[in-house]
Amino acid sequence: MSKPRAAVLCFVAISGLTTLLAACPGSLENPEQFMGCQDVPTTILGPRCATANCHDAEEPVAELDLTPDSGLEARIVDVDGTGCMGKLVDTAAPDQSLIYTKCLATNSCQSQMPVTGEKLTDEELECLLEYLTEL
Fold first, then answer.
1. DSSP-assigned letter for residue 91
2. Domain ranges (residues) in the chain
């Protein structure tokens, strides 16, 4: 192969690679969608539940503090709920845990959580249930 032809082929290959790399996005809007379930206490419970006037440490509604700290599991695992029948996290039947069922559109205990803000997505609900199952 001649040197000019090899140079042209090399140039074409590099140009193609540059174009391909330029087409790749630098970031994703919802990376958690592609990364599986990440730290549920800090990605879901903290920002969506343990907020002011809800289930924070300051004045927890229904005496339920969902602050993502080292004492969270002790506050929720096999602990009876207040106002609703059942356990906050039912280790025998995680899908019956109040923390999960209250986030569902159809639940038998008052209104769907979170009361304010956006409801949990299907992916967030799956992650929440996976987290509760692992407790």
1. T
2. 38-134
| CA–CA distance, 93 with 132 (Å, rounded to integer) | 10
Query: How far apart are the C-alpha atoms of 129 and 125, rounded to whole Å?
Result: 6
Tokens of 64: 């339920």
Written as one string, the DSSP assignment of 7-62 is HHHHHHHHHHHHHHHHTS-S--S-THHHH----HIIIIIIIIISSTTTTSSSS-GG
Per-residue pLDDT of the chain (135 residues; tens, 9 = 90+): 666 665 555 555 565 544 444 544 555 565 545 567 999 999 999 999 999 999 999 999 999 999 999 999 999 999 999 989 999 999 999 999 999 999 999 998 888 999 988 999 999 999 999 999 999
Tell me how far apart the alpha carbons of residues 22 and 104 are, in angstroms, rounded to a whole number: 42
Which tokens in the block code for residue 67?
């602050």
Specify the 3-state DSSP secondary structure of 2. coil
Residues composing the chain: 135
Q: Any idea which residue has 């192969």 for tokens?
A: 1
- Give CA 32 to chain center in angstroms: 7
